[in-house]
Amino acid sequence: MVKYAFGLLALASIAFAQQPLYAQCGGVGWTGGTTCVSGAACTRLNDYYFQCLPGTGTPTTSTPGSTTTSGTPAPSSGLPFLGGVNMAGYDFSVATDGSFTGRGVNPPVAQFAHFASQGVNVFRIPFAWQLMTPTLSGTIDATFFARYDATVQVALSSGSNPYVILDLHNYARWNGGIIAQGGPTDAQFTSLWSQLAAKYKSNPKIMFGVMNEPHDLQSVPTWVSSVQAAVNAIRAAGATSQYILLPGSSWSSAQAFPTEAGPMLLKVTDPAGGTSKLIFDVHKYLDSDNSGTHADCTTSNVDVLTTLVAFLKANGNRQAILSETGGGNTSSCFTNLKAELAYVKANSGTLAGFTVWSAGAFDTTYILTVTPNADGTDQPLWTQAVKPNLP
Predict the structure, then answer these.
(1) Are 97 and 340 in contact (CB under 8 A)?
(2) How many domains in the chain?
(3) Beta partners for 51?
(4) Range of 148's domain?
């Protein structure tokens, strides 16, 4: 939880041990160490986050308000910093076992222009696998695809060329069976991505979200093989310029990534060449059990994201996107989510951006809603925590 720093705490923090490279060393609410190891300088990235970055000279002590700056490193992928929102609806009634009933709900189209006018440059649009292909390995359903694509096209035209993430929201499952682990085969899984990639191969603003929140996998290495199969299928369909989002395990956990799926996903290759268009897909909520089901936030996740950033930098300067995070319209979330997103923005060379959960077809009573009110005003969480950290 972010705490406000008082004078005595600030004085006491001077006695803390030196912070390692890439660790936090200051910012609003920071009560830990404020000096860096030799060879690193405590650098102000924004009011909420000072970080030990490589630098020459003696270690530097930070204080809130310091004007030391090193600028933001350019992303290795060439992506601009992405800030946006999930537009839920076509995923409604997908259960965590990958089962589905219903028809989905179209996200209100007016929301795209509303958010784009405020600086949003990425929309994540979830969908149920069973809506897109009602049978495994079957042809994409023309009626549903017309609905989905109409939404995608509205999103693409809603501002100055936003990116759109196509998010397969099935938890690595189809009706209870895990992909390549007792459920659908890799061939059945990749059939969907082959067809979608063929439809969108001419638009470089499309991003392919391979799968939402794989969890409770029997074999993480087997899942990584399934991810590689999806990447191969997308490229083979002619979609060679688009970014592909690679999900890990444990609900796409940002915390688990460096020790679970991350080391294996680093080895996924891109038939189009290089790895700059393969972005890791991570999630992290801010409530007490990381479930995204409580209105209050108990952490800013800066410690978790700091570990993730260090892992990615140490392994080829790879990038990840925080495609799900969020909180309730409560003071604890105004503070914590703002600090989290400020950290993401300050580390945009490694963290490509974020999409907050959620707007779209959710009404304004949903516990994590950022859906605009009927009069066009925004939720306080959006105005206080999200909007200040948009690109």
Answers:
(1) no
(2) 2
(3) 24, 43
(4) 82-389
Stretches in the chain below the pLDDT threshold 70: 1-17, 21-23, 28-30, 45-49, 53-76
Model pLDDT for residues 58-81, shown as the tens digit of each residue: 344 433 333 223 344 445 678 999
In this structure, are 28 and 111 located in the same domain? no
Just list the catalytic residues: 213, 324
- Mean pLDDT of the chain, nearest integer: 89
Give this prediction's pTM: 0.84
61 within domain boundaries: yes
Long-range CB pairs of 361-369 (<8 Å, 24+ gap) are: 361/88, 361/89, 361/92, 361/105, 361/106, 361/107, 361/108, 362/88, 367/293, 367/294, 367/295, 367/328, 368/292, 368/326, 368/327, 368/328, 369/329
Same domain for 49 and 145? no
Do 373 and 253 fall into the same domain? yes
Kindly report, residue by residue over 146-166, the tens digit of the pLDDT: 999 999 999 999 988 899 999
